[in-house]
Amino acid sequence: MKKRLISALLIGILLTGMFVGCGNTTTNAASNATEIPTEHKIVNTNIEVLGGMNEFDSGLIQFLEKDYGNQNYMISPTSYKAALCLAIAGASGDTKEELLKAAGFENEEQMNEWYNLVYNATVDFNDWLKADQGSVEAAQKNDDYYIDGEGTPDGAFKIVNSIWANESRGGEFKKEYIDKVAKNYDATAASLPGEKLTDSVNFWVNESTNGQIEKLADKLDDYKLILANALYLRAPWMEEFEEYSTKEDEFKTFDGSKVKKDFMNQTNEFYYYEEDGGKLVILPLKYGVKTAFVLGNISDLDNAMKNAQRCTVDVKLPKMDIDSEFGKDIMIGYLNSRGATSAFGGGADFSDMTDDDVMIDEIIQKTKIKTDEEGLEAAAVTAIMMVESAAMPTEEPEIKEFHADEPFKFIVYTELENAENEVLFYGQMVE
Q: Where are any strands of DSSP class E within 68-196?
């Protein structure tokens, strides 16, 4: 297993200061495309080429909240960027340069190193989980040990990719491109007649997300090429909530009305940050993933994550069950706002991917998150659809309070090898 460099979540999300601390410890905190790899190995990464990429994430959130600020939603910057990696790998000329810049990468090498770090985080998670499972199974066979909890530890964290060619529309990938994305992104490839494409892609989506996202779309046979990423996470809380502590209470929505929700409750040691107008608590999941919850406005989330201190915190959180879907208005609109335009018109150059003249016609992302007393489950699928291009201290601690009974934001992230962490999922509950 690789050596982990602990770091803080580096995202420049615009939210709005006097810091309140409560401790001395800070966080740093072409055959069958339905085949999903199960054996993962760490890949070598060159950390020196990485840096400064999370501006993409913060910009995406700002772009979204112009229209979705008063709605529940979740977005996966990681899945979005991974799908873009598949497109960029097959692009050339101005199209490649524009997409690289829009995605926050200086060059393709940096893009590949970023993906390797995310992939390695999934490997670490699963190695840690496997070791935990082995320890519990061994202890269960030894009468001298008492096992706290029931059953074998459970969890999953994976990122998978696939590319699809529609034979009925003449879709065909170059062999060099298939080999390239297989090597760099473990992407499986399939070439199918149009009447089989929709069911096959939807089956892959369902399998890749453990049934959390059942399908991408009802009709996909209009597209010539499809590039898809899926991201799936299931992990238990480090400190689980007791079911008997879950109580129904009122949640104040963004417009001031009140609705009933089931709230999970516990008082425990967590990393916590507070300033005038806002507070943040970080709840760790097992195996290297964390979730930060934010109430109110915090002027600098990056700083808040770095300076969160371990406190006794009375936490009250509503169970979440949120799903979102974004199409071209957001997914392509955001890239357009960052200067990427040629990929979506007659001037698109994907000559490293295919001999045909194609352009990106649609990008869809679907996400889902569920939380309960035991843990969190979240999934995302992002697909890029392409068509023929047209001309175009030791004393008794003070107990802090974090009661999320009003609109709040959440960030699910994991620690990478470099000085940054990866925002897997970001969202909010406001109603």
A: 73-75, 156-166, 188-192
pLDDT tens digits, residue range 318-362? Answer: 999 999 999 999 999 999 999 999 999 988 999 999 999 999 999
Whole-number Å distance between alpha carbons of 289 and 271: 14
The token pair at 353 is 């991917």
- Burial bucket for residue 66 (CB in 10 Å: 0-12, 13-18, 19+): exposed
Domain count, the chain: 1
Q: What CATH number has the domain bearing residue 215?
A: 3.30.497.10
Q: In which residue are the tokens 């071209």 written?
A: 328
Cα–Cα distance, 219 to 223 (Å, whole number): 9
Please report, as a single letter, which amino acid is at residue 198: T
Decide if 298 contacts 273 (C-beta within 8 A): yes
Q: Are strands 156-166 and 188-192 parallel, antiparallel or unpaired?
A: parallel
State the residue range of the domain holding 174.
73-236+322-388
Q: Would you state the pLDDT for residue 39?
A: 52
What six digits make up the tokens of 196? 């089989």
Query: Is 232 part of any domain?
Result: yes
Separation CA 172–CA 47 (nearest Å): 35
| Collapsed DSSP state (helix, strand, coil) of residue 100 | helix
Is residue 271 assigned to a domain?
Answer: no
- Condensed to tens digits (0 to 9), the pLDDT of residues 376-388 reads 999 999 999 999 9
Write down the residue that tokens 């149009």 correspond to.
Answer: 194
Q: Is residue 261 part of a domain?
A: no
Q: Is the dihedral of CA 373, 129, 423, 338 positive or negative?
A: negative
Q: 3-state class of 299 per DSSP?
A: coil
Please report the pLDDT score of residue 149 as a whole number.
52
Is residue 179 included in any domain, yes or no?
Answer: yes
pLDDT tens-digit map of 50-95: 444 478 988 999 899 888 888 999 999 999 999 999 999 999 999 9
